[in-house]
């Protein structure tokens, strides 16, 4: 039971790493009229889940979890650098490092020692800190993956609810319907080969790049 409770803490919106301050280009997509209602928000989030979160972020998280289990700093460094290199815009790269640095500050205060050989990796992306915490708290890999997917989905849906805007009921309906896609995504991520790990979300990249110069905005990305 305790590992599950630690997972809830790790993926909670109250974790002080600022996850709720990022929209990953969604704010510009709404400003541009690409996303205007519940169906179009569903389509946007489903696309990002299928072509980035499930094919890039989750497989990298799995490999980082394995890297910390084996104390393999070379593997940890490689996949952190791979993830950061896969981020197409300055905002997306900054988001990775900002979340990573925040988690690197938080973890020692929670009793999780960061290996000196991996401190730069942990500072570079939130996924490394999550993988390290999961190892320390003995959170099973499948539960970590499920928790990460849910955390990403919840943050993204809530950003859309605020920005479109939509009612809270619409947000819950989106969570209900989109969460049905998560088990299959997780199984695919567990089976993906190293050579197939990649993201392909050109609309998100365009939206993120445009968001960098958006005149008025609520979110950092």
Summed up:
By secondary structure, the protein is mainly alpha-helical. 69% of the residues lie in helices and 0% in strands.
How would you describe what is shown here?
- The chain has a single domain, classed as Orthogonal Bundle (Urease accessory protein UreF), CATH 1.10.4190.10.
- The protein has 221 residues and is mainly alpha-helical.
- Helix 3 crosses helix 9 and helix 5 packs parallel to helix 7.
- The protein is built from 11 helices and no strands.
Classify the beta-strand content into a percent band: under 5%
Rg value:
17 Å
Q: What is the ordering of alpha helices and beta strands?
A: HHHHHHHHHHH
CATH superfamily: Urease accessory protein UreF
Please give the share of residues in helix: 55-70%
- State mean pLDDT (0 to 100 scale): 95
What is the CATH topology assignment?
Answer: Urease accessory protein UreF
Which structural class best describes the helix and strand composition?
mainly alpha
Characterize the main sheet: none
Family: Belongs to the UreF family.
Pfam family, one: UreF
Protein name: Urease accessory protein UreF
Subcellular location: Cytoplasm
């Amino acid at each position: 039971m305790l590992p599950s409770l630690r997972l809830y803490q790790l993926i909670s919106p109250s974790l002080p790493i600022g996850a709720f301050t990022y929209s990953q280009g969604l704010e510009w997509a709404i400003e541009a009229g690409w996303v205007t209602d519940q169906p179009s928000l569903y389509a946007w989030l489903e696309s990002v889940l299928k072509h980035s979160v499930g094919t890039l972020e989750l497989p990298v998280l799995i490999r980082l979890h394995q890297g910390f289990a084996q104390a393999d700093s070379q593997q940890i460094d490689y996949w952190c650098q791979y993830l950061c290199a896969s981020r197409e815009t300055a905002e997306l790269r900054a988001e990775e490092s900002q979340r990573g640095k925040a988690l690197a500050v938080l973890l020692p205060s929670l009793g999780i020692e960061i290996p000196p050989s991996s401190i730069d990796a942990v500072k570079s992306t939130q996924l490394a800190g999550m993988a390290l915490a999961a190892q320390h708290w003995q959170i099973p890999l499948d539960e970590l993956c499920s928790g990460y997917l849910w955390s990403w989905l919840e943050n993204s849906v809530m950003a859309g609810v605020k920005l479109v805007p939509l009612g809270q009921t619409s947000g819950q309906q989106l969570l209900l319907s989109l969460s049905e896609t998560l088990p299959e995504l997780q199984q695919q991520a567990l089976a993906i080969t190293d050579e197939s790990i990649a993201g392909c979300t050109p609309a998100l990249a365009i939206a993120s790049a445009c968001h960098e110069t958006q005149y008025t905005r609520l979110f950092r990305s």
